[in-house]
Amino acid sequence: MVNARLNKRRLRAVVAFLTLIGLGFGGVVGYEATIAQPNQVVRADTASTTLLQLGIPKAVIQTMLDNSLMSDGRTPTAAGETVNTFTVGDVQKLKTLSLATRTKNTDGTYTSKANSNVADWLGSLDYTSTTGGASPVVTNDVVLGADYLSTGQTAASTILDQGVPKWSGGDQYYTPTPILNVLMAVINSATNATTLDLTGMLSKVPTQSAYSTVHMATMALVQTNKLTNLKTLNLGGNRLGSDQQGSAAIDGSAYYLFRSNTLTSNSVTDLDLSNNDFTTLDGNILSGIGSQISALNLGGNNITSIDYNNGSVFSNASKSDGGSVNLAGSENLNVSGNTAYVIASALNSGGASLTLDDKTANDLATNQLASQSAWPGVSSAGFQSIAPQLSGNTVTTIVSQNATAVTSNVLQTLATTNADALSADTLTSLADKNANAITADALSSIAANNATAIDDKVVSSVLANKPTAITSDSLSPIAQNSAGALTSNLVSSILEKQPDAITSDSLSAIASGSSDALSPAVVAQVVNSNPTAITADSLSAIAKGNGAALSADVLATVAKTSPDAITSTSLAAVAANNAAALDATTLATIAKTHPDAIDATVIATVATQNPATLTPDLVTKLADAGALDATALKTIAVNNPAALTGLSDDDKEKVIAAAGGSDKVGDVVNNPTTVPDSEAAKPATDTPVIAPQSDTQGSVAVSGGNIGFGQVNLGGTDDVITSPTAIEVAGTIPKSWSLAVSATPWQTADGQHQFQPTLTFGTVQDKANNKALDAIQLTSDGRTKVLVGNATAAQTFDVQMGSIQMTHFDGAVAGQAYTGTINWQLSNTQSATQQ
Q1: CATH architecture under which domain 11-23+697-834 falls
Q2: Region (Disordered) spans which residues (predicted)?
Q3: Domain extent listing, the chain
């Protein structure tokens, strides 16, 4: 555990050890299976027939056993099923049927990837077209394109116990029995399944020169419309989009059957069509999906255009009850016209998640939000959802052309998640054009996350147009972090317009971070108009930050209007930085009202800095007030003996009596020049300024150790790699500060190669405050994301994160080892400690 204190260090957790190797598949995988021979069909009861009897390869059956789930949550393998015992009846009972490799995440979700045994086997089948009559493909392995198969006129059970008929209602069958059709009939037998995972199973099926829609035609054999319990359908990584191109010209029926049969469902809520080489979504492809859809994954498809008719599907899938649409990877989207409408529909639905590439988000914002009359409009909620992705140029353009689009919620999101997109000029323009967007919380977050975005012009404009945004909570971080943002004239104006903003905390912050803004006139104005802001802490901070701003008159007034501010500590700070403010009259006055505040240290400091102040008359008055003791007298004797030798005999007796009357005291008063220097108190020295939150030190500690991702086969089909290591970040966050996280690019030890992956933390829970936090997705570009922020009071935190997933690592070079860093940062602290 490493503890980082405020303004001292930044904490890094080094995530390391991703080794990438350039290995590919070395050959065709062999299968141990009993393949059905010509005319060999199983005529026994379908439910009791094993998949091995049907001719399904053992490796494929084993994949089902290891990755499918039964109603009790166990895999068939865990329940004791084997390739020799697994039957069609067992398939019918499954809750999850999978032909993909599924990995369970810490949050209970699953990550799927193509299973090489399944993909290699299906890729090795014969799809070469023959003279098949009405069917475009008829081989020993496959029959595709027959309407009565794809539309479900022939039931799965009929195929399994009689064979594949040559036409609907006929009694002639293809020989040998096409094994692909048998597999699809097995899939269609999973009538109780709520999840069907076919990720990547067709990834190695080659495109046929005579039948280019082979992937869609194969997937069209899945009778989704008969699987009425199905909720999740995973079809990612099956090259379906490559078939779509020119489908109408070559074989429109395959595309028609795929969308009207496989993609038509009134039960499926989660549809995964990711990494399928789609470049366009026409007006029909999603037309059969019902309004129950709540998640649509089109990531990794490089889509360039989306037809208007898909708008309802996108908005339904992105609805506010946890829905999502993933368009990551489609950075070449033409964000205008129909495509813009579809994306805006999803954004405006109040969707919890619409994943867009940064380029798309910025293009959309520039095209739609910067123009007040652009169609379709993007709502405030939509703007807020893409705000973390916007560049500074985009935000500046929007504020310049359509400032009213930036609401307070949008600005707050920018301030906490993307403050670097804000500049001083942009904020000044926003305050002038749409001041209602400016809030105290936003200013606090901006000052903490991008201090340079607030200057004196910003403060002046906010004070003129939205003075209520200037509060103690926003003023403190501005004063501490944004050097030059406060001037004496501005502080004076704040005192006039927003006097409640000047508190002990904010005044201390101004004194320590923007001391030039405290002129003598301003301090006098504070003392006279807002005396409650003058405390021992703020008086000390003023003295240390700009002692020249204090005068004897000001101190005299403080002693009357803010008596609790006068302490030995605050007077020592005043004496150390401006001893002239403690003249004889002021010291005498304070001695009467605050005798305990004038100790030996204060006297030593005054005697050193301004010895003429200590006159016999003042010594007498200090004695009368009971402000002298033996140490104080010794200090005066060492630093200014004339103040004692000039006393009359009567005054000496008074001073001796007031200091305790001992012989040693009498010796000091009567013989001050004989007192050794070593017996004098030391003068006060200027000590480091106490931060406004001095009663609560901020800290960050990270546990979990280094995070390993192991080795990755760049020739494989991995799109996501997962580190099982969990991370826990705990500590204390002071008032108005924030805890943020960022990640750096990954690079080799010699710095010659690097790439920028995306890191996703799954389950995020703040145990200290008993609440779940949003999942974190970091791009490795140094951009900060706030985890815990805008605290209204100091608070502890204990954030636990599950395993980490890495995506977008395709820019890596094989044969290299890479390391990256995750930075955990309190407020705008920039120094570091490495774990």
Answers
A1: Sandwich (2.60)
A2: 674-695
A3: 11-23+697-834, 40-277
